[in-house]
Write a structure and sequence with these properties.
Helices cover 30% and strands 29% of the residues. With 337 residues, it is of the alpha+beta class. Helix 2 packs across helix 3.
């Protein structure tokens, strides 16, 4: 099932975004005529896009241009790009203009039947979340923000390692799209060099016994623009986007479809075998292995050398007191003062 907002129910800001998403200049007069509104309304909508983080150029005698943004997300295009086998498992997929969080959208619903998934995407998240409550910045058209819900027959024994398996699935998807040599940082970051390209947030909804539903949030930077990249970097997080990978104008619907396809297959493997089928690829992509790190776990700080992960997904750190295992914590490769 596909759920998408009908054309006549879209806000003017979304309609202007879609009209500008081809990356070309469009005059205010042309946009006003096409959308059936005044030029002043178009100007206000362009300013609203700027407030959401988009880079909108306005040039006299040329009009407006949305810099960097990829094609609008389209639930039907994404579904059609999936394999026939996966389409059978896709209970529904929806694209919204703006939501608080795609994870929240799916968490507020009942879990899907076992063996089926539900997918929610949004052009803009007003309260997009990363780990530990951090804000996820993503302007309209500048990222792929999607969530998947999936029901396991019972809570997997090493469910804490699921973010590692999903990270491998994301790298598989991007590799198929021509983006090689990405890395993974324990437990949930996708890196391009030492800069963050994307992140994974997994939320578990389960009873003491019986089925367990996971909601998997995946955010990938596609074309953030120089201003937003600078804003993110000012928070102390180095960020990167796919437009810097030299793949031209990224096709966001193709990216979303590949990620959904790869992660669904990965969930089936994880339910049967846990992290084992993903270990070799994780080790190859491990951005921390052999590096000096500091792990923050509550009030405890542990310094040592990262030695990879074990089959439960725990981070191994060779510290002065011996090899330590961490199932949670913040890892930094920068020495703390």
């Amino acid at each position: 099932m596909i759920r998408e907002v009908p054309h006549d129910a879209r806000t003017l800001v979304e309609r202007v975004f879609r009209a500008l998403a081809d990356g070309n200049f469009h005059s205010g007069e042309e946009l006003a005529r096409r959308l059936g509104v005044s030029r002043s309304a178009v100007w206000k909508a362009a300013n609203s896009l700027r407030e959401l983080g988009s880079t909108v150029h306005a040039v006299r005698n040329r009009g407006y241009r949305l810099a960097g943004a990829g094609e609008p997300l389209d639930a039907e295009l994404i579904r059609d790009a999936l394999s026939r086998t996966l389409r059978v498992r896709l209970r529904h997929i929806e694209v919204a203009w703006t939501v608080a969080s795609t994870n929240t959208v799916l968490l507020e619903r009942g879990p899907p039947p076992q063996g089926e998934c539900e997918v929610a995407l949004a052009e803009f998240q007003s309260a997009g979340r990363g780990r530990r409550g951090r804000t996820w910045f993503a302007p309209p058209g500048g990222a792929v923000c999607l969530s998947m819900s999936w029901t396991f027959a019972q809570v997997p024994r090493d469910v804490g390692s699921l973010s590692l398996a999903i990270g491998v699935c994301v790298l598989r998807a991007l590799s198929r799209l021509g983006v090689p040599d990405l890395q993974l940082k324990w437990p949930n970051d996708v890196l391009m060099g030492d800069a963050k390209l994307g992140g994974i947030l997994i939320e578990l909804r389960a009873e003491a016994a019986g089925p367990a539903c996971v909601v998997i949030g995946i955010g990938l930077n596609v074309a953030l623009g120089a201003a937003l990249l600078a804003q993110i970097n000012a928070t102390g997080v180095a960020a990167a986007d796919l437009s810097a990978a030299g793949i031209g104008r990224p096709a966001r619907n193709a990216i979303a479809a590949q990620v959904i396809e790869s992660c669904t297959g990965g969930l089936l493997d994880f339910e049967r075998e846990g992290l084992r089928p993903f270990m070799d690829e994780w080790r190859h992509a491990d951005a921390l292995r052999g590096r000096a790190v500091t792990v923050l776990n509550g009030d405890e700080r542990t310094r040592g050398l990262a030695r990879g992960v074990d089959v439960t997904g725990a981070l191994l750190v060779e510290a002065p007191q011996g090899v330590r295992k961490f199932v949670a914590g913040e890892v930094s490769v920068r020495p703390l003062a």
